[in-house]
Amino acid sequence: MINLVKNELIKIFSKKGLYIYGIIIIFIMAFNLVVEKTRVFDNSFTYYNTSEERLSKYDLNNSEELEWYVDEKSDLEKFKLLEDYDSKSPEYYYIEKEVFATIKKMNIYKYIEKNDELFNEAQEEYNNQIKLLEDYDWRLKLEEDKKSLEDELGELKTQGNAESSDDRIYQIECELEGIRYRLKNNVAPSYTHSSSIVDDYIIYSEMYRAMNKDESAYKSNSELIEKRNTEKRYYLAKYNIENDIVMSNDISFRDDFVGDVTGAVMLYIIAMVIIAGGIFAEEFNKGTIKQLLIKPYSRTKIYVSKILAIFIALLAFILFYNTIAFVFYWILDGNISTIFDPIIDYSFRKNAIVEYNTFGYIFIRYLSSLPQLIILILLCVFIGVITTNTVSSVISVFCLDFINALISEFLSEKIIALIPMNCWNFDTYLEFGISAYNYSSLGKSLFICSLTIIILFILGLIIFKRKDIKNQ
Fold first, then answer.
1. Contact call for residues 347 and 354 (beta carbons, < 8 A)
2. Burial of 174 (0-12, 13-18, 19+ CB in 10 A)
3. Which of 52, 324, 411, 459 has the most C-beta neighbours closer than 10 Å?
């Protein structure tokens, strides 16, 4: 058996297509590296270079075009201000979040509502904001915001217990908690990874509160997943805030690397197709299957050895891709020490925050994709044995999604939940503790995937053992 597997691996790694595919991946990553390393400016302003010309063509007597004019004019004025600041600076964030709203008000009052009094008020507010930008002190600004929110909170608590007041009190308390976190940990409001923790906490705490007011509103699995996604974002942000965890201002090497290798399932499937697509069909077409069968090996051993060789070769490709991705992000980021930082996640199974070792997390994510890869490998082999045609075995893999979408249009949700293509992705169980489909469960999905794997394996073996080789 070992010699058979070795021989199959030699055949697999003699395929030019596999090496060409590997070279394409290396080339794409190298190209991306050059682009990232040589990018010296943000080209997001390119669109606005011709804004002045477009603005002159609007018909301000047309109400619809007038609204477009106000939107574009406000955007242009905002981007003119932004050009003077780095995209990760507190000033940039302040312009986006506060100054832009004032610019928009000014243009609405001037062009749409034609209200001089309100326009003058908005313009005065704008002038004060621009003056503040000249020597921007984000800590002083937060202290002022903190004082204003505390005053509002005091007033609300002396009023009645209206639901709207309760909601606003909760919102203010979250905002104050975020401000205290920023001041304590020196985290400026900005478009950085560290600052996004506070933004997430404020945004998702409000959504979390709203969603949990009526649990009965979330009946389908897709609705529950949306709810749990909000809950997860809230729990993670809350954990970071409460434990004073400050992220790097940039996405770390670990985050980039983990996101890349765990999201590359389609690349692995393409590699699998190159490896498995012709492993039987080519033997039949070239007539080499006869030479293999005259050796003292049973057809069962030949069949099993080929499948084992596919898995080993696919594992080698995954290791190759992981290595290339590791080197790419190492060159791009330079700081690989973050690979040893724990990955913080929320487990709905434990209803608690959990920590993962980086490589342990990657392994778990790969395990969640393993049933899909196994089923596709066996399907590819099964079709190849039946048709003795490489193209048909390859096409069968890439047509599954289309076939699944087509037949699902005519089936009930209970039947859809039993289709193997809807059971083999366990990412939703890992992320949210439930299936993406109604009437499905982890145990049911595992059973269907296991049954599908056994059936495909046995059927492929039976057909191969009964295949008439004389005319091949």
1. yes
2. buried
3. 324
